[in-house]
Amino acid sequence: MPRQRSLFDIIGPVMIGPSSSHTAGAARLGALARAIVGGTPTRARVTLHGSFASTGKGHGTDRAIAAGLLGLRPDDERLPEAITLAEAAGVDIAFVSGDLGDAHPNTARFELTDAQGRVHVVQGSSLGGGDVAVTLIDDFPVEVTGELPLLVVVHHDQPGVVAAVTARLAADVINIASMQVSRERRGARALMLIETDERVPDEIIAGISAIDGVAEVRSVPAV
Amino acid sequence: MSYTSFADLLAAARRHGSLSRAAIDLECEETGADAAGVLARLSEALSVMEEAVERGLREELRSRSGLVGGFGRALAGARPRLTDDAFVGALARALAGAEVNACMGRVVAAPTGGASGVLPAVLITAAERLGAPRESVVAALATAGAVGGVIAARATLSGAAGGCQAETGAAAAMAAAAAVELAGGTPEQSGHAAAFALQGLLGLACDPVGGLVEVPCVARNATAVAVSLAAVEMALGGLEFPIPLDEVIDAMGQVGRSLPPSLRETALGGLAATPTARSLASRLESGYRPERDEGE
Question: Predicted ipTM?
Answer without folding.
Answer: 0.94
